[in-house]
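Notes continue from the previous slide.

Worked example: a multi-chain complex. Inputs as given:
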Amino acid sequence: MSPSGPVPVVTFLSDYGPWDEFAGVCHAVILRRCPRARIVDLTHGVARGDVRAGALALCAAVPFAPAGVHLAVVDPGVGGSRRAVALRSGADGRHLVGPDNGLLMLAADELGGVLEAVEISHSVECLRPISATFHGRDIFAPVAAALADGATLARLGEPIDPETLERLELPRAHRHERVVTVHVLTIDAYGNVSFDATPEIVAAAGVELGAELIVQHAGGTAAATLGRTFGDVAPGELLLYGDARGTLALAINGGSAAHALGVSADDELVLSAR
Amino acid sequence: MSPSGPVPVVTFLSDYGPWDEFAGVCHAVILRRCPRARIVDLTHGVARGDVRAGALALCAAVPFAPAGVHLAVVDPGVGGSRRAVALRSGADGRHLVGPDNGLLMLAADELGGVLEAVEISHSVECLRPISATFHGRDIFAPVAAALADGATLARLGEPIDPETLERLELPRAHRHERVVTVHVLTIDAYGNVSFDATPEIVAAAGVELGAELIVQHAGGTAAATLGRTFGDVAPGELLLYGDARGTLALAINGGSAAHALGVSADDELVLSAR
Amino acid sequence: MSPSGPVPVVTFLSDYGPWDEFAGVCHAVILRRCPRARIVDLTHGVARGDVRAGALALCAAVPFAPAGVHLAVVDPGVGGSRRAVALRSGADGRHLVGPDNGLLMLAADELGGVLEAVEISHSVECLRPISATFHGRDIFAPVAAALADGATLARLGEPIDPETLERLELPRAHRHERVVTVHVLTIDAYGNVSFDATPEIVAAAGVELGAELIVQHAGGTAAATLGRTFGDVAPGELLLYGDARGTLALAINGGSAAHALGVSADDELVLSAR
C-alpha cells in the first residue's frame, strides 16, 4: 500500500445518517490526507448510537471488501473515557479504525483476530484542536487516511494489549429437543428480524424446508414457514430463513416482520417445530 | 473498455435504502472484481419493491450517464423464478444488469433497445454460495463488475431471446376535446406527482401557459395553473408543469401535491380546461 | 487544475435527499463533462428549501475540504428570477457554484471572500434544453464540472459585481451581564440545537465548565449544564456545549434537545447563569 502501489481502499460505516454533513466532512478529511484513497461507504444509516447494530453490519460487510482500511464510527461515548483505536487484523494486513467500544471486534474476529493495536486519541495525525464531539472528523478519519497512505500503526499511536479491547456481549440462542429459543439481534430497514443463531439450529430441531413452526413472542404466537426466500410464502405470511449474512431471520413477504410481531432488539422468541 | 482504456463507469440504482449496508456491500464487491471501476449511485431510495418507480428513475437517468454498465436492483421476486439478466443496448455499447421484471426495459428502450441478452443466474462470475435473498451482492454486482472489466455477455451467461424479456404495463393518458384523463406514475420525495403524459397533451387540449385547469381526483376537485416552475404560482397553490424528466406533473409551491390531493400511484385524475 | 494536474475535487451539497435520482443524475452529468473529477458528497439531506441550513452546513464543511469546486444546490426559487452564479474565492483558487440566494456566501466568507463572480444561467456549458425545475442537472453540475476541468470563469458566464450577491440575514445573539439571548440557527438529525453564538458568550457571562444554567424557551424553563461532550451530563439531561462547528449548542445525552424543548429555527432562548 505504498504511494506507488494499488489504489488504497477505505471502507466507512457510521451512524451519521444521510441528513447532516458529518459523513461528507470525513470524506473530505480523508481525501486531503490521502488523495489517492478510494472510499466505500458501507452505510451511514446505523441506528444512532447502536454499537451492536454497527458491529454486526461491519462484520457482515468486511469479508466482501477489498483489503484496506475499515473505518467505523458509532460512538455514543465520544469525548468520554473510551479509547480511540486502530487495529491490524488478518492475513492480508487490513486495518480497523474506530472507538474501542466493541464496534470493531466482530469484524476483527471475522478477519482472523487482532494482531496489533494502538491508542490514537493523541495521534500525530489528529486534526487540532480536537473537538469533544466529532472524533470521526478529528481523530478517526485522519488516522484511517494515514493508514491508507502507508503509515504504520507504530507511528500513529501508543501500543495497547489487544486482550484489553472492549467486546460486545451478545445473547446466545439455545435449543432443547424441538424447541429453539432465540433473541433479536438486529432489525433491518425492511423489518426483517435477525437472530443470534444460524439456520442449522432449526435443522437440528428436525425442521425441514417447507415445514411450519410456531413462533412465540411477547405479544402472542404466530405461524411461520421455513423457506429460502420471500416468495416461498404467500404475501403477508411469515418466513423463517437464513438471510444474506448467513443468520437465522424472520421476514414477511412484502411486509415488516418486526412491525407485525411487535419485536425489538434483544427480545426473546421461542420457535417450536410442529 | 479494455483494462488499458478509459475508467469504466458503473451506475447503480436500487431500493436498498440508506439504512442498511446492502448498497455498500455491492460497492465492495464491484471494487474487488474491477478496482478501476467508477461507481455512480443514481439512487438507492426507490420505494421498496416498487419496480415501476425504479424503472422510471433509471430511464430518466441513463441519458445523462456516461456509456458504461447500468446496474439496477429492485427485486421483490429475488430467489424465485424470475430470471437474472445482463443486456447490451444502444449504439455506444452500454450494458444493463438486473432482474428480469421490467426494471431495465424502459431504460433499454430509451437507449435504443436490446441488442443482446443473457441469463446470469448461474454465471461464472457469481459469488458462491449464492444466497437466496441478496442477488445484488452475489449475482448482479459481480456480473456488472465483470462487464466493466471488459468481459463479454457471451462469457457471462446463457443467451436468451430479447423478445422474451419482461415488460411493465404502464397506464395510458387520453384526451377527449378539452378534458384530459391521466394516471399517477410516480410521486417524488417532495410530493410532486408525475403522470403518464407529456405537457403536449394539455397544450392539445387548448390550455395555455398561465391558464387555470380543474383537477378532479377521488377526494374532490382543485384548481391548478399551467406553469413552468414552482414560483409561477403562489405558495400553497397547485402547479401543472412539465417536470425535469419531460413528464406532465403536479406540484404545490412549497408543499406536497400528493399529500394535499391524497393521491397515490395509479390513481386516475381528470384535468379540464376552463 | 489542468488536465495533466492532480485529480480535481468537486464537493456537492444539496437538498435533493436520498430518495430520488436527482443527486445521482448530477454525478453522472459531472462525470461526463470531467471524467477525472472526484466528487465528494457533503450531504444531500439539507431540509427541503432551507437555504440557511444549507449555507451553514457548507460553511462548516469547506475548511476541511481540498481546494477545488464547491457545488451547492438548495434552490427554492429555481426557474424564477434569482441568478445562477459561479464564484472564485480564497487564496487557493477555489470555486463555488450554485443559486444566488445566499447559499454560497457564508462559505465564501469563510474562504476569504469572493474575488470574481459570473452569472451562468446561459452558460455555454448548460445542458440544453434547460429545464425550469432542475438547474442542478442543467446548469450547476455542468458548470462545476467545467471548472473542475480547468475552465475559467470568464468563459463560463457574464461577469457580475460580487457586491451584488445575495446574503442571508442571520439573527444575532446578545448578552446583558449574566443573561444571554440566543436564537436557533439549525437543528441536526440528532435533535442537537445550534445557536447564533460561540461558547465564548457564556464564558463572558461568567459561566464555568460544569456550572448549571437556566434555559428559558417558549414552552417553559429547563436546567442545562455547560460541558464539553454528551457524557458530561446524565442520560436525558441537557448539555450546553461548543459543537464540532465551534458553535454554541444544546443537546440531550441520548435524546433530542429540539424535541424536548419544542424549539424550531429562529426561536429565541434566554440562558441565565445561576
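Summary box: The interface with chain B takes residues 17-21, 23-25, 27-29, 31-32, 35, 48-49, 76-80, 127, 131-134, 137-138 of chain C (CB under 8 Å). Chain C has a mean pLDDT of 95.
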